[in-house]
Give the backbone structure.
Amino acid sequence: MLERIKTRVWPAGIILIFLAVAGLTSGVGKLTYSSLEKAFYADEKTINFVRPGLELKILAAVINPDGRMAARIRITDPLGVGLDRLGVFTPGPVAISFVAAVLPKDKKQYTAYTTRLQTSPITKVSATQASADASGTWAKEAEDGEYTYTFGTRAPTTVDRTATHTIGAYSNRNLTAFDLGTNYASATFNFVPAGGEVTQVREVIKTASCNSCHVTIAAHGGSRRGLEMCILCHTPQTIDPDTGNTVDMTVMTHKIHMGGDLPSVKAGGKYSIIGFGQTEVDFSKVGFPPTPRNCEVCHAQSGANAASQATAMFVPTRVACGSCHDNIDFAAGKGHIVQADDTLCSTCHRPSGEREWDISVKGSHVVPEYSKNLKGQTIELLEVRNTAPGQNPLVTYRLKDSEGKILAPSQMDSLSLVLAGPAPDYKAYWSEASRTDTLSPSGSAVHTFARAIPTDAKGTYSVSAEGYRNVSFEGPGRIPTTVRDPLKNVITYFSVDRSVVEPRRKVVAVEKCNVCHVRLELHGRNRNQIEHCAVCHNPTMTDAARRPAAEAPNEAISFATMIHRIHTGKEQGRPYIIYGFGGSVNDFSDIGFPTSASDCGMCHVNNSQNLPLKANLQPVTDPRGWLPSLGVTSAACLGCHSSKDAAAHAQLNTSTLGESCTVCHGANAEFSVNRVHAR
């Protein structure tokens, strides 16, 4: 057994003295929490007493000669002060569960020792699944949060004591009695039972890669955190007996992220897993924000997110490849030559080849829009003249290719300049093609807008640019392919009445969008910067120009309303469908946000979600909403909070003087935006 540390029970009064000496009654509580956490808003006395948060660490592990397994752990608050597991001497009980698994020397994935037998009430089939240990026993090691857990499960007599073993622990600290929610923590510990250094591990993807989109990758209620924990149970040994689907991490993760792009789903099938409490989770409508061909979004090959075994993505196997390409039957030779095992896979499918779209692993996954054939070009908006109300603006600009050589406007396949205003919150815009503008000897061109600035215009207006060149090359399957190579949108602001130039408020940043989307490019890749998107998606805009009359009323596409509704599609309680170019039907009703939709900071910059919003913003048109016209604050909030009750609340707090949202939801109010969204 692990070496025991002598224990003694301290009286409650001594515990309180210890806490005071440790500094837990000093006024430092809120300094350790962000405004997106519930603890930030608790009163100082509560924080200093409870010290919300949970840290879990596995200190040591052992497999005794008789197969008994044990682990020594330490649970503490964020300041490192030990917690009482039962919640008697420190606030909040801590529930902890354990998994034990081995990484066999001849295998790439774990096999769990801790298992359960699960029988499907649907198919009546039983399956042995990796699970948490049951019937283990606890021993308290010290008063600083150390405990020893002895497993109820024993390692098999055939255990290879020279192989890597891993103990996983997941836990939660229940602080709901203090209105501080539940804190979660997971930990893993690698060891070799016979002694010596751990040399064999499994790290194909880092948790940090998942957290780029998911913020904190967590499952099963939130207690299992990090891939290091997930891979101990999600192994080839575990089957969902209800559907027959494996929940092996490789297969399951690929299939989840392929979702609606799975060949089996496109053929009319579905991909789902039935989990705890017989709850079916259907992933058939999942859409990966970038293209699922972009493997390196998860399998980062360089930088901080690169795993130690990142190159494993270049080692093809029937299981890994067949999880995405699930219309292939390797045994029967359907969609691929017969492949009895994985030994010959890399003979044809090398890590990389000499050209894009060859049959190498990297080549076959090249996204045409990311092809090296696309060199790019840039535009500079040099000057805007004739900017008074009633005048036709003259815009001087310069185009260059990727090598810095001047391009004539006629060399672009599409080029447009967009005039819009007023910039703090646009009311209208108009776009004019500029490919016919003449190139001057100096290498610049001038576009004179046919449409004048409105005679009653005031404040700041903007000019922005969009365009692309079509590039043709030999694409996938050596088939001639033409792809748009777009400009990066640029924008410039100017005053029409000699007032101070006031650019449109910055609410989100495209860099934040690209954390998940990689390259946010819409409308044929033509619109790729948020500042340009907001020009068209202004408060007055709906999809009226594209929606058939029979499908009226129209749908709001004001930026805040539209983005909130898209990212909370599943939670809307009503369809959110936008008609686009060519009458395309874009249904966002099944979109699920990869993290909590209450995590406003995933998209917003500079706490721009907080109230009050900028003064004198335009009312928002929302024909399909509960309120056909509403204030900008109400519109933003009702974009997510789509119920009739929420709309009534907004309506009741709006008068002829405007919205009173800031009274209760202002940055320092009791129900501030950050506070009500805190986790």
